[in-house]
C-alpha cells in the first residue's frame, strides 16, 4: 500500500512500546478518575510524559495505585476539586504538586484539565506530540461518552492527537481527509472498529483492514464498522473519510 506525503499519520502503538525502539513520542498525560494499577502500560505512559496532570479524583486513584511512590508525582491536580480527598491533597502538596481550581459546570474535569494543560504548555514552551488520557474507559457509559466528547472539543483547540487509553484498548479521532495509521503486529489486539460517533460520514474508504470500506456511507441506524480487524501482515492502514470517525482497537495483553 502506498500513501501520499500529505496523509495525516498516527502512530498509536508507539505510545505503548517499552524500550529503545520507536519514535518515543512526548506525551501530555492526564490521569482520569477511574481505578487502575501501576502496570507496564501505565508505567510506559508515565515515563514518556513530559508533563502530568491529574483530573480531580484521578489524584486519589494515582495515590492509591502508586502507594506513595516517589516515582509517580504529578505536576498538577486540576478541576473543581470536589473529589480530592484530604489525605491525597496533603500528601501531594508536600511534594510541591500544584492545585488548580477550575470551576466550570458546563465541562467535565477531563475537559477543563485538558484545556488548562494546553494553555500551560503553551505559556511555558513545553513541547509535546500528543495528549493521552488514562484510564479512559471502564466506568459509567455517560462518562465514557463525555470523554469522547472531550476529544471533539480538543480537536478544535489543537492539531495534536488525543488518545483515550486503557490496558485493553485505545481510541482516537480521525478527521476528514486521508489518515494513515501505523500498526504494530506485536501489540495489536484481535479487533478494531471505525465508528461515525458524531454525525454521518457520507463517504468512507479504507485499506489494510480485514473488511474494507469503498466509498461507503456510515451512520448510527445503518452501517458502523465494529468488530473489524487489521489485515494479515499489514504495517499500516488508511482511512479516507468525509467526516470524523472514532477509531478504536484492542491492545494485546
From TrEMBL:
<dbReference type="GO" id="GO:0005524">
    <property type="term" value="F:ATP binding"/>
</dbReference>
<keyword id="KW-0808">Transferase</keyword>
<keyword id="KW-0547">Nucleotide-binding</keyword>
<dbReference type="InterPro" id="IPR036371">
    <property type="entry name" value="TPK_B1-bd_sf"/>
</dbReference>
<dbReference type="InterPro" id="IPR007371">
    <property type="entry name" value="TPK_catalytic"/>
</dbReference>
<dbReference type="InterPro" id="IPR007373">
    <property type="entry name" value="Thiamin_PyroPKinase_B1-bd"/>
</dbReference>
<comment type="pathway">
    <text>Cofactor biosynthesis; thiamine diphosphate biosynthesis; thiamine diphosphate from thiamine: step 1/1.</text>
</comment>
<dbReference type="GO" id="GO:0006772">
    <property type="term" value="P:thiamine metabolic process"/>
</dbReference>
<keyword id="KW-0418">Kinase</keyword>
<comment type="similarity">
    <text>Belongs to the thiamine pyrophosphokinase family.</text>
</comment>
<dbReference type="GO" id="GO:0030975">
    <property type="term" value="F:thiamine binding"/>
</dbReference>
<dbReference type="Pfam" id="PF04263">
    <property type="entry name" value="TPK_catalytic"/>
</dbReference>
<dbReference type="InterPro" id="IPR036759">
    <property type="entry name" value="TPK_catalytic_sf"/>
</dbReference>
<dbReference type="Pfam" id="PF04265">
    <property type="entry name" value="TPK_B1_binding"/>
</dbReference>
<dbReference type="GO" id="GO:0016301">
    <property type="term" value="F:kinase activity"/>
</dbReference>
<dbReference type="InterPro" id="IPR006282">
    <property type="entry name" value="Thi_PPkinase"/>
</dbReference>
<feature type="domain" description="Thiamin pyrophosphokinase thiamin-binding">
    <location>
        <begin position="177"/>
        <end position="245"/>
    </location>
</feature>
<protein>
    <recommendedName>
        <fullName>Thiamine pyrophosphokinase</fullName>
        <ecNumber>2.7.6.2</ecNumber>
    </recommendedName>
</protein>
<dbReference type="GO" id="GO:0009229">
    <property type="term" value="P:thiamine diphosphate biosynthetic process"/>
</dbReference>
<keyword id="KW-0067">ATP-binding</keyword>
<dbReference type="GO" id="GO:0004788">
    <property type="term" value="F:thiamine diphosphokinase activity"/>
</dbReference>
<dbReference type="InterPro" id="IPR016966">
    <property type="entry name" value="Thiamin_pyrophosphokinase_euk"/>
</dbReference>
Amino acid at each position: 500500500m502506498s500513501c501520499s506525503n500529505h496523509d495525516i499519520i498516527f502512530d498509536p502503538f508507539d505510545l505503548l512500546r517499552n524500550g529503545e525502539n520507536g519514535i518515543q513520542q512526548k506525551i501530555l498525560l492526564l490521569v482520569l478518575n477511574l481505578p487502575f494499577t501501576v502496570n507496564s502500560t501505565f508505567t510506559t505512559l508515565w515515563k514518556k510524559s513530559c508533563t502530568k496532570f491529574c483530573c480531580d479524583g484521578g489524584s486519589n486513584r494515582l495515590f492509591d495505585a502508586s502507594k506513595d511512590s516517589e516515582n509517580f508525582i504529578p505536576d498538577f491536580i486540576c478541576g473543581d476539586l470536589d473529589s480530592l480527598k484530604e489525605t491525597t491533597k496533603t500528601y501531594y502538596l508536600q511534594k510541591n504538586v500544584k492545585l488548580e481550581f477550575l470551576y466550570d459546570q458546563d465541562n467535565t474535569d477531563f475537559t477543563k484539565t485538558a484545556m488548562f494543560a494546553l494553555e500551560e504548555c503553551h505559556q511555558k514552551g513545553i513541547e509535546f506530540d500528543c495528549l493521552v488520557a488514562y484510564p479512559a474507559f471502564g466506568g459509567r457509559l455517560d462518562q465514557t461518552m463525555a470523554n469522547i466528547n472531550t476529544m471533539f472539543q480538543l480537536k478544535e483547540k489543537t492539531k495534536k492527537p488525543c488518545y483515550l487509553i486503557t490496558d485493553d484498548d485505545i481510541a482516537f479521532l480521525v478527521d476528514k481527509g486521508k489518515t494513515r495509521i501505523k500498526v504494530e503486529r506485536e501489540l495489536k489486539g484481535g479487533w478494531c472498529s471505525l465508528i461515525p460517533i458524531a454525525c454521518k460520514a457520507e463517504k468512507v474508504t479504507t485499506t489494510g483492514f480485514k473488511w474494507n470500506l469503498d466509498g461507503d456511507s456510515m451512520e448510527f441506524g445503518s452501517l458502523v464498522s465494529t468488530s473489524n480487524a487489521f489485515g494479515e501482515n499489514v504495517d499500516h492502514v488508511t482511512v479516507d473519510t468525509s467526516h470524523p470517525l472514532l477509531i478504536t482497537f484492542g491492545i494485546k495483553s
